[in-house]
Amino acid sequence: MSQLSAGCIKLLQTADPGDLDVFNSPYVVQFLSTKRVGNTNPTASGATPPDRYRIIMSDGTQYMQAMLATQLNEMVTSNTITKNTIAVLEKLTCSFVQGKRLVVVLGLRVLEHVAEKIGEPQNIDAPASGAETATPAVASASTSVPTPAAASVNMSSSSRPPQPPPKGRHGNIYPIEGLSPYQNNWTIKARVTQKSDIKTWSNARGEGKLFNVTLMDDSGEIRGTGFNLAVDELYPRLEEGKVYYISKARVNLAKKKFSNVNNDYELSFERNTEVEECHEVTNVPTIKYNFVPLNLLEELNKDAICDVIGVVKEASPVTEITSVKQNRQIPKRELTLVDKSGFSVRMTLWGKQAEQYSTAESSPVIAFKGVKVGDFGGRSLSMYSSSTMHVNPDIDECFTLRGWYDSSGAEQTFKAHSMSGGGAASGAAFNRADIRSLDEVKQTGYGMPEKPENFSARATIMHIKADNISYPACPTQGCNKKVLEINGTWRCEKCEQSYPAPEHRYIMSMAVADYSGQAWLQGFNEVGVAVFGMTANELLEKKERDPSEYNAIMHKANCHTFNFSCRAKQDTYNENTRIRYGISRIQPLNYKEEAIAMRDLLYSAWAR
DNA sequence: CCCCCCCC
C-alpha cells in the first residue's frame, strides 16, 4: 500500500499561500470523501453552473477540506477518485481570506484504491482557535510572511537583507521586518508595491493632504504615509513598482484596524526622510498574488479581500456617483472580468483608477491585488485605494489567460454569479449559516436608514396575492419593459418595436411566515416560475381556459417552504414610507442538503 | 495629522 505523506496536511493548512514549494510538492494523500456542493439552479433560468466537489484529504494523521478544480470533476463522476482513493497531489493553489483557507486541487494522479481509511486522522481544523482574529486582511498576509522558499521562487537569490553590505552610503540595510521605534539609523531597500492617490481631509482637528505607499522587501511589508510637505516632496518621486533606499522616516505603531498591511508598525515620512531610487533590485520581491478563480468567489465572504486575474471583457465609460455619506461626486468605472472558470464578475474602479484606466487595448489581462468582495448581483468586486491593478503583468497566469482567451475564451459565454440574470433583482447569495427570523428583520429595522440591506430567510408561503400576478412584457431578451396593446399588436416604448404577442412576467407579492412572524415579500419573474413551476404565459393560459384550475394552482402554491435571499429597502409610495422586502433569490428546500447542513452544524458544535 | 472606499 502506498505511503501517505505524513505531515503534509499540517503543512498545507499552515504554509504561506504563496509558498509554491509547499503547494506544488507531490504529496500522497487519501481521500476520505468527495462531496458535491452548492449551486443548484431551481429558478430554471437556463445554464447550470458547473458542479463543484469538496474533498476531504488525509495524510493518515490529520485531514482537511479542499476543493477540487472543476476540470477534475470528471474524476469524481467517473469514480476515478472515490472514498479511500490514494493519490498524488500534483498541483494545488491556496488562498487565505479572512481566516478561511481555501485549498484547491488543480492536478492529481491516482495511485490506488483501498478498502479502508488509513490510520485515525483528526480534523486539523477542529481546535483552530483564533482563526478569525489572526489576520484580518489576508491578501497581505501572504506577501508579508514569505518563507525563504517562496522568496527564492520570485527572486534569483534567497538571501535576505542585510547582506551583502551595499557599497557607499547605504550601510545599514535593515529588513522591513526588523524595523521598530527602537531602531534608528536604518535604511530599508524596498519596492513600492502600491501608491495611493493624494487624499485631502478636513475635520475638526484641521485639514491637510496625504498619500500612502506599501513598501515590500523579502522580509515583509510596511505602510508608509506622507503628510502635507512630504506629499509635495515625495509623491512625485516614489513610483509604483520601483525600488528605493529609504531612511530617516519615523516608525510609528500601526493602527491595525485601518490597514491591511501586515506589520505592527508603519512609517511616517518626515521633513528629513531620505529616499533614493535603487537600480540594483535583486532580493526585492515583486508582488505576489494568490489568485482566486472567479467561479470560487462565492466561497469567500462578503468584504473579504482577495487577488484575482481576468480578461477585461467589457469596460464601461467613466460615470459619477454621488456618495450620500461623503456628500461628493466620485468617478467610477465598471469592468467585466472573465476567466477560464467560465464565470464573469464585475469589478468597480474608483477615482483616479477609474479615470486613468486606458481603453486603448480591447481585452487586456489585468491582475488585481487586495480587492474587496461584494455581494451585488451574487458576487462583485471593488477596488480599495490600497488595491493594485497591473495590466498584462509579466506572469505565467497572464500568459495562460491570454492564450486561452484569444484561442477560445473570446467566443465563450460566461456565467454570472447572480441567479437573476435580468439585473432588476440583485442581492446576496443565500447564506444558510446566517438565516434571519422575519421578526428580527422587522424589529431591527433591516433596510431602515435608506441603506438597502440583504438578508437570508427560510419561510413558508401563506398567501399569494392573486390579482396583478403578472404583466405583459416586451419579449426582447433582457428588456422586460411593460408593453401596451395597440390595434392588436404589443408596443414596447423602450425598444420602439411592436410584437404580435407579449411575454408575461410575474410580479409576485406574497405573505410568508416562519416561526417568528410573517412578512410580505415581493418578487419578479424567477420567483413566480419557482413557485408555480411554470411560466406566467402558461399560467395565464390556464386561467383563461379554466379558472378553477387556476384557483387550484394558486391554492396549491401555499404552504411550501423556501430559502430566500432578500433585500430590504425603504420605499415611499403615496407619502407612505415603509420597508419593502424584495426577493433576489428563491430556492426550494432541498431536504437532503438541509439535513446534511444540520448534521455538520451538530458535528462542529460537538467538535468545539 | 488619515483611516472614507462610496453607487446600482
UniProtKB/TrEMBL annotation:
<keyword id="KW-0238">DNA-binding</keyword>
<keyword id="KW-0235">DNA replication</keyword>
<protein>
    <recommendedName>
        <fullName>Replication protein A subunit</fullName>
    </recommendedName>
</protein>
<feature type="domain" description="Replication factor A C-terminal">
    <location>
        <begin position="455"/>
        <end position="595"/>
    </location>
</feature>
<feature type="region of interest" description="Disordered">
    <location>
        <begin position="123"/>
        <end position="173"/>
    </location>
</feature>
<dbReference type="InterPro" id="IPR007199">
    <property type="entry name" value="Rep_factor-A_N"/>
</dbReference>
<dbReference type="GO" id="GO:0005662">
    <property type="term" value="C:DNA replication factor A complex"/>
</dbReference>
<dbReference type="Pfam" id="PF04057">
    <property type="entry name" value="Rep-A_N"/>
</dbReference>
<dbReference type="GO" id="GO:0006310">
    <property type="term" value="P:DNA recombination"/>
</dbReference>
<dbReference type="InterPro" id="IPR004591">
    <property type="entry name" value="Rfa1"/>
</dbReference>
<dbReference type="InterPro" id="IPR013955">
    <property type="entry name" value="Rep_factor-A_C"/>
</dbReference>
<dbReference type="GO" id="GO:0008270">
    <property type="term" value="F:zinc ion binding"/>
</dbReference>
<dbReference type="Pfam" id="PF16900">
    <property type="entry name" value="REPA_OB_2"/>
</dbReference>
<dbReference type="Pfam" id="PF08646">
    <property type="entry name" value="Rep_fac-A_C"/>
</dbReference>
<dbReference type="InterPro" id="IPR031657">
    <property type="entry name" value="REPA_OB_2"/>
</dbReference>
<keyword id="KW-0862">Zinc</keyword>
<keyword id="KW-0863">Zinc-finger</keyword>
<keyword id="KW-0539">Nucleus</keyword>
<dbReference type="GO" id="GO:0007004">
    <property type="term" value="P:telomere maintenance via telomerase"/>
</dbReference>
<dbReference type="GO" id="GO:0006281">
    <property type="term" value="P:DNA repair"/>
</dbReference>
<dbReference type="InterPro" id="IPR012340">
    <property type="entry name" value="NA-bd_OB-fold"/>
</dbReference>
<comment type="subunit">
    <text>Component of the heterotrimeric canonical replication protein A complex (RPA).</text>
</comment>
<feature type="domain" description="OB">
    <location>
        <begin position="186"/>
        <end position="266"/>
    </location>
</feature>
<dbReference type="Pfam" id="PF01336">
    <property type="entry name" value="tRNA_anti-codon"/>
</dbReference>
<dbReference type="GO" id="GO:0000781">
    <property type="term" value="C:chromosome, telomeric region"/>
</dbReference>
<feature type="compositionally biased region" description="Low complexity">
    <location>
        <begin position="133"/>
        <end position="160"/>
    </location>
</feature>
<feature type="domain" description="Replication factor-A protein 1 N-terminal">
    <location>
        <begin position="20"/>
        <end position="112"/>
    </location>
</feature>
<dbReference type="GO" id="GO:0006260">
    <property type="term" value="P:DNA replication"/>
</dbReference>
<feature type="domain" description="Replication protein A OB">
    <location>
        <begin position="296"/>
        <end position="392"/>
    </location>
</feature>
<comment type="similarity">
    <text>Belongs to the replication factor A protein 1 family.</text>
</comment>
<keyword id="KW-0479">Metal-binding</keyword>
<dbReference type="GO" id="GO:0003677">
    <property type="term" value="F:DNA binding"/>
</dbReference>
<dbReference type="InterPro" id="IPR047192">
    <property type="entry name" value="Euk_RPA1_DBD_C"/>
</dbReference>
<dbReference type="InterPro" id="IPR004365">
    <property type="entry name" value="NA-bd_OB_tRNA"/>
</dbReference>
<comment type="function">
    <text>As part of the replication protein A (RPA/RP-A), a single-stranded DNA-binding heterotrimeric complex, may play an essential role in DNA replication, recombination and repair. Binds and stabilizes single-stranded DNA intermediates, preventing complementary DNA reannealing and recruiting different proteins involved in DNA metabolism.</text>
</comment>
